[in-house]
User: Which sequence fits this backbone?
């Protein structure tokens, strides 16, 4: 009798167990979307904020029906490394890729790989050429900000100063340009448009004392500006930096040389990193430009989801830059 009861009980337990994995299980029909993200290098102040926001935003979008499984990899500033990461995402049948290219010139190769595997691809931050963006239409897109706009805003920040930055009043703006990476359109456009817009808005001419490549890096920014200050001393009126990381380095060099921003030198960056906004608010930097990583990352994620649903993508999704000066810095904290 006991034996029969035990048998019955174990049968019931088994039935109960089976019931758990049956169609009533809410997790059973949950769709998993695999997203492969590759960032040109993790060790970049701005892209760190950007990639963290991609992950955070995907988390907020996971529901009972869909989970976004996001794998973020470090391209280590090495195109071969990044290409193999992309090959792996494709081989493992990821649903969509979000790529911050190490080299924008490699876009065509990556697009061809995606097209062969029928995988949508969202490019972020480093804009492929207009030609390349015509490939694999509807399945690729670029999400970013128009770097020309950020350059123009830098030029305006200086042109709008009471003395137009011309501290020695000789009708010329003596400046130093700290470039991110000359192959990158953000760096090219910021370098070019900051000066063109300055000339247009101020009506003055310029005298470039130095232009050096700082690879978007704070330590390099500091070194370049320290050397320029040693060489050109009081002649330098403005230091333009293609991004805030380098401007933070420049600010250290300026301080170390006993100069004072806003008094005997001016300094502008781009990104509106928290530290830079703080410095703009305290008059330790003349201004920066908001590179809106929140809107950009959200647009990139929204585009990825759209593509996974099978909708066609626009070729471009743009986000505006915003000027940050001591007057409005408190709004950006
Ligand atoms: C940002 C830089 C960043 C670079 C990386 C630029 O848009 O302003 O801070 O280093 O992108 O590609």
Assistant:
């Amino acid at each position: 009798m006991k034996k029969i009861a035990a048998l019955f009980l174990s049968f019931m337990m088994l039935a109960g167990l089976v019931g758990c994995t049956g169609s009533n299980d809410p997790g059973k029909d949950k769709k998993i979307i695999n997203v492969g993200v590759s960032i040109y290098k993790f060790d970049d102040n701005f892209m760190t904020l950007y990639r963290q926001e991609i992950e955070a935003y995907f988390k907020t979008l996971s529901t009972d029906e869909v989970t976004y499984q996001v794998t973020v990899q470090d391209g280590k500033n090495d195109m071969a490394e990044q290409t193999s990461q992309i090959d792996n995402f494709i081989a493992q049948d990821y649903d969509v890729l979000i790529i911050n290219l190490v080299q924008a010139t490699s876009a065509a190769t990556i697009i061809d790989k995606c097209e062969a595997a029928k995988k949508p691809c969202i490019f972020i931050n480093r804009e492929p050429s207009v030609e390349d963006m015509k490939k694999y239409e509807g399945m690729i897109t670029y999400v970013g900000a128009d770097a020309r706009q950020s350059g123009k805003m830098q030029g305006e920040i200086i042109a709008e100063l009471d003395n137009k930055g011309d501290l020695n009043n000789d009708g010329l703006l003596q400046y130093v340009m700290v470039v991110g990476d000359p192959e990158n359109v953000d760096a090219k456009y910021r370098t070019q448009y900051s000066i063109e817009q300055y000339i247009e808005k101020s009506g003055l001419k310029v005298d470039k004392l130095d232009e050096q490549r700082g690879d978007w890096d704070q330590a390099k920014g500091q070194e370049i500006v320290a050397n320029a200050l040693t060489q050109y001393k009081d002649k330098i009126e403005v230091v333009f930096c293609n991004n805030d990381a380098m401007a933070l380095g420049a600010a250290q060099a300026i301080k170390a040389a006993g100069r004072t921003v806003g008094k005997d030198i001016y300094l502008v960056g781009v990104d509106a990193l928290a530290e830079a906004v703080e410095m703009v608010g305290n008059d330790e930097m003349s201004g920066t430009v908001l590179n809106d990583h929140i809107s950009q990352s959200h647009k990139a994620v929204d585009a990825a989801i759209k593509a996974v649903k099978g909708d066609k993508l626009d070729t471009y999704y743009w986000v505006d830059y915003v000027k940050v000066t001591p007057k409005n810095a408190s709004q950006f904290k």
About this structure: Residues 1-23 have pLDDT under 50 and may be disordered. The chain has two domains: 31-145+293-319, 147-290.
